[in-house]
Amino acid sequence: MARLRLPLYGKILLWFLVNLMVLGLLGFGFMRAQFRLGFDWMLAGPGGERLEQLGESLTDELRRTPESDWPPVLERHEAALGLTLALFGSDGIQQLGPPLEVPDELRSKLIDKRRTEDMPPPPRPDDARNRGRDREREPKPGRDQPPKPRFMMRSSDPARYWAGIHLALAHGEASARRPLTLVIVSDSLSGGGFFFNPWPWAGLVAGGLLVSALIWLPLVGGITRAIRRTNDASRRIADGDFGTRLPAGRQDELGELASSVNAMAGQLGAYVAEQRRITADVAHELCSPIARMQMALGVIEQRGTPEQATYLGKLDTELQHMAKLVEEVLAFS
């Protein structure tokens, strides 16, 4: 199986991203340890605004609806959000919604000591005539009002995420009326995008990576160009072009590498030139004795006997072979 080839530029960007992630996790862990941050910080942004808008919308709708008709209203909001919704009283006891096993650490957050005198009761089923006047005297939520108390936490076995907000709404009759708290339960941290929308963060990471790529491009481009020139020069030197030289103007390790390659090419060229000179000198020195031997052999062949002709012919063949080898050495040098 072929290994994935990642260019140097990609490796630098990858490790830069890993470095940012490690620094971010370390910074988040330090802040959480120093300031004892829980999951409430997730409600400080758009997630908290969505939770407050849901609380205001649900409060306004339930105020206009008899308590006997509250379950369908809650179920309709559940279906729209894809989350589990429940209403709890100020004593931590669930009043509406599917039965939930509330962890102990959440029950303490459900305790609500607000007074119910300022919370008008919902209309009765037979009191439709006064609904308009009731809505006129109900306090309407405004943008200038401070945000309502809200919280978020995580429970385990099974892992669930709980978010809640105290509503300006009470439940019950007369002395049994208690303020209500809306609790939202999700199996994931994002809550289907209600608590936390990962796409803006993904866009931020992609934008940061793009900006980093543009910032690092000149530096990494200079490094990769220098490495590419060194590779090309090494190939030419390996092919015998010892006159190849690299620009040695850089004042860093790549500049030192270029100087070393230039020195190596010069030394190899000098070494090969010296070897060729010595080879040529030796070949020239061998040419003269071989020529003299061939002349002497020719004289002997003219004066020799027929019995000697066979041996003299073999000797002449060997001398011709030696002469051919010397010519090849001269041609190589």
Count of distinct strands: 5
User: Uncertain spans, ≥5 residues at pLDDT below 50?
Assistant: 128-146
Distance between the termini: 46 Å
Give the second-level CATH assignment, the architecture of the domain at 38-196: 2-Layer Sandwich
Q: Oligomeric form of this entry?
A: single chain
Largest sheet data: 5 strands, antiparallel
Main sheet strand line-up: 2-1-5-4-3
List keywords for this structure.
5 strands; Beta-Lactamase; 333 residues; Helix Hairpins; alpha+beta
Word description of this protein:
This protein is an alpha+beta fold. Among the domains are: 38-196, 2-Layer Sandwich (Beta-Lactamase); 263-332, Signal transduction histidine kinase, dimerisation/phosphotransfer (DHp) domain (Helix Hairpins). It contains eight helices and five strands, in the order αααββααβββααα. The protein has a five-stranded antiparallel beta sheet, with helices on both faces. Residues 128-146 have low confidence and may be disordered.
Short description:
The protein is an alpha+beta fold and 333 residues long.
Helix/strand layout:
Elements: H1 8-35, H2 46-63, H3 70-81, E1 84-89, E2 94-96, H4 104-110, H5 131-137, E3 150-155, E4 160-171, E5 178-186, H6 198-238, H7 253-303, H8 306-332
Antiparallel strand pairs: 1-2, 1-5, 3-4, 4-5
Helix pairs in contact: 1-6, 6-7, 7-8
